Description:
SGNH_hydro_sf, Sialate O-acetylesterase domain-containing protein, Carb_Esterase_6, SASA, hydrolase
Amino acid sequence: MLRSVCLTLTLFTFQLLLNVDCATAKTFRIYFLGGQSNMDGYGYVKDLPEDLGAKISDVMIFHANPAPDAVPVDGRGIWAPLKPGHGAGFKSDGKANSYSDRFGVELTFAQAIKELAPDEPVALIKISRGGTSIAIDAAGKFGCWDPDFEKGTGAGQGINQYDHFLAGMKRALQTRDIDQDGEADTLVPAGIVWMQGESDAAYTEEIARQYEANLKRLMDLIRATLLTDDLPVVIGRISDSGDNSEGKVWKYGDIVRDAQAAFVEKDGHAALVTSTDGYGYSDRWHYNSAGYVDLGRKFAQALWKVPRD
Length: 309
């Protein structure tokens, strides 16, 4: 029931925003950034080049508070100008943001999109949580994006990452003036950026082989939430540091990589970013700062080339 109510409210709010009729209103192109820890971002702010180390005042971001499964639905966040600190460790209480010393792909993604379309206002919605899977059986202690996840007790019964996603989208899209300039804004969906799959590659071959179908279902649901069936999607291909005595951190990573490629090939409105294979790592699971700087740009460039009907 909660998912149905949240989705209905989200769609209703989004329709209201699309129907705003104001000659002076700003029209923002909205990009959703989602996934697990390599979407959270483990780059160090101290490593950023000078042009990325300050607030990007003409790009807005709503970063929903990361929350585990089996707790009351969250989604808290605020619209604010983009700046460093939206990486791992970021938090929001819905009134103010608590920035971390880490960053993800959001900075260079926004920078590259602005270079490609300098006259189009850009806004990001980021909802991600480290360790999360799509498959229910790979959720572990981190969480699951499958809407049918039903674990937990009490007020958290059945609450999962998809529920938190819907709550975050609802909060983001119900804001009429995201840049607080006194004028109602129009929000137009422009794309989905998805960096996830490592957890689905860590358990069993069976779980890994389910990834293509699970990914398609989730992307269809996210597109439906944004009311755009052909909304461009860009997928970041998972990679492996090899920092493991057995040779691979993600035992069934090759299966998930093939599944990501298969989804993109069949979808018609998706692209696969493969530059991740060449990145260095800050630990066995996460890219280094230079990797996130490059990945954001690669996501933007790939998304820009995805065809739409």
